[in-house]
Amino acid sequence: MKKLYRQILILSAFTLLFLVNSCNPFDDIYLNLDMDTEFNITAAGSEISIQKDFCLSDFEDYQDNKDHILEIRYISSAYLTINSTPGLQGNNLVLTLYQADGSTILFKYTVSTFIAADYINNPLKINLTQQEIDNINLYLKNPRDNKCFIAKLELSNVTASTLTYQLECKTEFLAELKIEP
Predict the structure, then answer these.
(1) Is residue 70 classed as helix, strand or coil in its secondary structure?
(2) How many secondary structure helices (H) and strands (E) does the chain include?
(3) Would you state the torsion angle of the CA atoms of residues 34, 50, 149, 104, taken in this order, to the nearest 10 degrees?
(4) What is the pLDDT of residue 62?
(5) Mean of per-residue pLDDT scores for the chain
Protein backbone atom coordinates (compact mmCIF):
# COMPACT_ATOMS: atom_id res chain seq x y z
CA MET A 1 0.00 0.00 0.00
CA LYS A 2 2.93 2.32 0.77
CA LYS A 3 4.17 1.85 -2.81
CA LEU A 4 0.78 2.84 -4.22
CA TYR A 5 0.64 6.04 -2.09
CA ARG A 6 4.22 6.86 -3.08
CA GLN A 7 3.43 6.44 -6.81
CA ILE A 8 0.29 8.57 -6.49
CA LEU A 9 2.28 11.24 -4.64
CA ILE A 10 5.03 11.26 -7.30
CA LEU A 11 2.47 11.31 -10.12
CA SER A 12 0.62 14.19 -8.43
CA ALA A 13 3.87 16.12 -7.97
CA PHE A 14 4.81 15.72 -11.65
CA THR A 15 1.30 16.72 -12.73
CA LEU A 16 1.43 19.81 -10.53
CA LEU A 17 4.88 20.77 -11.85
CA PHE A 18 3.68 20.30 -15.42
CA LEU A 19 0.62 22.48 -14.87
CA VAL A 20 2.59 25.23 -13.14
CA ASN A 21 5.34 25.33 -15.80
CA SER A 22 3.30 24.71 -18.92
CA CYS A 23 2.69 27.42 -21.50
CA ASN A 24 -0.30 29.58 -20.88
CA PRO A 25 -2.29 29.90 -24.10
CA PHE A 26 -3.46 33.30 -22.89
CA ASP A 27 0.02 34.85 -22.64
CA ASP A 28 0.61 37.87 -24.85
CA ILE A 29 2.18 37.27 -28.24
CA TYR A 30 4.79 39.69 -29.62
CA LEU A 31 6.01 40.08 -33.20
CA ASN A 32 8.73 42.33 -34.56
CA LEU A 33 7.69 44.62 -37.39
CA ASP A 34 10.68 45.60 -39.53
CA MET A 35 9.80 48.59 -41.71
CA ASP A 36 12.56 49.05 -44.31
CA THR A 37 12.53 52.11 -46.53
CA GLU A 38 14.97 52.10 -49.45
CA PHE A 39 16.39 55.16 -51.18
CA ASN A 40 17.95 54.87 -54.67
CA ILE A 41 19.71 58.06 -55.67
CA THR A 42 21.54 58.94 -58.87
CA ALA A 43 22.67 62.56 -58.94
CA ALA A 44 25.40 65.00 -59.92
CA GLY A 45 24.84 67.96 -57.62
CA SER A 46 26.26 68.79 -54.22
CA GLU A 47 22.94 68.33 -52.38
CA ILE A 48 20.71 65.30 -51.89
CA SER A 49 17.14 65.52 -50.69
CA ILE A 50 14.84 62.56 -51.16
CA GLN A 51 11.80 61.27 -49.34
CA LYS A 52 9.73 58.10 -49.27
CA ASP A 53 6.22 57.52 -48.03
CA PHE A 54 5.29 54.28 -46.33
CA CYS A 55 2.42 52.93 -44.25
CA LEU A 56 2.06 50.14 -41.74
CA SER A 57 -0.12 48.27 -44.25
CA ASP A 58 2.87 48.06 -46.64
CA PHE A 59 4.32 45.37 -44.38
CA GLU A 60 3.05 41.79 -44.30
CA ASP A 61 3.40 41.27 -40.53
CA TYR A 62 1.10 44.23 -39.91
CA GLN A 63 -1.39 43.25 -42.64
CA ASP A 64 -1.63 39.66 -41.41
CA ASN A 65 -2.31 40.69 -37.81
CA LYS A 66 -3.98 44.12 -38.02
CA ASP A 67 -7.31 42.92 -36.60
CA HIS A 68 -5.62 41.42 -33.53
CA ILE A 69 -3.01 44.05 -32.65
CA LEU A 70 -3.33 45.44 -29.14
CA GLU A 71 -0.29 47.71 -29.17
CA ILE A 72 2.58 48.89 -31.38
CA ARG A 73 5.75 50.03 -29.65
CA TYR A 74 8.86 51.58 -31.24
CA ILE A 75 12.09 49.64 -30.61
CA SER A 76 14.91 51.10 -32.72
CA SER A 77 16.05 52.61 -36.03
CA ALA A 78 19.14 52.33 -38.20
CA TYR A 79 20.65 53.58 -41.47
CA LEU A 80 22.51 51.23 -43.82
CA THR A 81 24.36 51.83 -47.11
CA ILE A 82 23.63 49.04 -49.59
CA ASN A 83 25.82 50.31 -52.43
CA SER A 84 27.45 53.60 -53.41
CA THR A 85 29.87 55.24 -55.78
CA PRO A 86 33.43 54.91 -54.39
CA GLY A 87 34.46 57.89 -52.28
CA LEU A 88 30.91 59.19 -51.81
CA GLN A 89 30.80 61.48 -48.82
CA GLY A 90 29.19 64.65 -47.56
CA ASN A 91 28.30 66.81 -44.59
CA ASN A 92 25.23 66.79 -42.39
CA LEU A 93 23.38 63.62 -43.23
CA VAL A 94 19.91 64.38 -41.89
CA LEU A 95 17.39 61.57 -41.44
CA THR A 96 13.90 62.78 -40.58
CA LEU A 97 10.71 60.82 -39.92
CA TYR A 98 7.41 62.68 -40.26
CA GLN A 99 3.81 61.76 -39.62
CA ALA A 100 1.75 61.33 -42.80
CA ASP A 101 0.87 65.05 -42.81
CA GLY A 102 4.50 65.81 -43.75
CA SER A 103 4.84 68.60 -41.20
CA THR A 104 4.82 66.85 -37.82
CA ILE A 105 8.35 65.61 -37.08
CA LEU A 106 8.61 62.37 -35.12
CA PHE A 107 12.41 62.49 -35.07
CA LYS A 108 15.33 64.22 -36.75
CA TYR A 109 18.79 62.64 -36.60
CA THR A 110 21.97 64.30 -37.91
CA VAL A 111 25.45 62.93 -38.64
CA SER A 112 27.90 65.80 -39.23
CA THR A 113 30.43 63.87 -41.37
CA PHE A 114 29.10 61.16 -43.66
CA ILE A 115 31.13 58.59 -45.62
CA ALA A 116 28.80 56.19 -47.40
CA ALA A 117 31.23 53.23 -47.35
CA ASP A 118 31.43 53.36 -43.53
CA TYR A 119 27.87 52.02 -43.32
CA ILE A 120 28.10 49.11 -45.76
CA ASN A 121 27.41 46.02 -43.63
CA ASN A 122 27.82 48.30 -40.60
CA PRO A 123 24.49 49.93 -39.68
CA LEU A 124 24.40 53.37 -38.13
CA LYS A 125 22.18 53.15 -35.07
CA ILE A 126 19.83 56.11 -34.91
CA ASN A 127 19.81 57.12 -31.27
CA LEU A 128 16.60 58.91 -30.32
CA THR A 129 15.74 60.94 -27.28
CA GLN A 130 13.05 59.68 -24.93
CA GLN A 131 10.78 62.48 -26.19
CA GLU A 132 11.20 61.32 -29.80
CA ILE A 133 10.41 57.71 -28.80
CA ASP A 134 7.35 58.94 -26.91
CA ASN A 135 6.24 60.93 -29.99
CA ILE A 136 6.44 57.83 -32.18
CA ASN A 137 4.60 55.66 -29.64
CA LEU A 138 1.91 58.32 -29.24
CA TYR A 139 1.45 58.43 -33.02
CA LEU A 140 1.10 54.62 -33.01
CA LYS A 141 -1.32 54.68 -30.07
CA ASN A 142 -4.30 53.27 -31.97
CA PRO A 143 -2.64 50.18 -33.46
CA ARG A 144 -5.48 49.23 -35.80
CA ASP A 145 -5.25 52.55 -37.64
CA ASN A 146 -3.05 52.21 -40.69
CA LYS A 147 -0.55 54.96 -39.84
CA CYS A 148 1.60 56.38 -42.61
CA PHE A 149 5.00 58.07 -42.47
CA ILE A 150 7.37 60.12 -44.58
CA ALA A 151 11.07 59.29 -44.30
CA LYS A 152 13.42 61.97 -45.61
CA LEU A 153 17.17 61.79 -46.30
CA GLU A 154 19.23 64.94 -46.85
CA LEU A 155 22.96 65.34 -47.44
CA SER A 156 24.97 68.49 -48.23
CA ASN A 157 28.41 69.13 -49.76
CA VAL A 158 28.35 65.79 -51.57
CA THR A 159 31.55 64.65 -53.28
CA ALA A 160 32.45 61.39 -55.01
CA SER A 161 35.09 59.89 -57.27
CA THR A 162 32.92 60.55 -60.34
CA LEU A 163 30.81 63.50 -61.50
CA THR A 164 27.59 61.49 -61.39
CA TYR A 165 27.22 59.42 -58.25
CA GLN A 166 24.91 56.73 -56.98
CA LEU A 167 23.73 55.93 -53.45
CA GLU A 168 21.53 52.98 -52.60
CA CYS A 169 20.65 52.91 -48.92
CA LYS A 170 17.87 52.18 -46.49
CA THR A 171 16.53 53.14 -43.14
CA GLU A 172 15.06 50.50 -40.87
CA PHE A 173 12.42 51.15 -38.27
CA LEU A 174 11.81 48.30 -35.86
CA ALA A 175 8.59 48.12 -33.84
CA GLU A 176 7.02 45.48 -31.65
CA LEU A 177 3.45 44.32 -32.24
CA LYS A 178 1.53 43.02 -29.24
CA ILE A 179 -1.03 40.56 -30.57
CA GLU A 180 -4.08 39.36 -28.67
CA PRO A 181 -3.99 35.62 -27.98
Answers:
(1) strand
(2) 3, 8
(3) 130
(4) 94
(5) 89
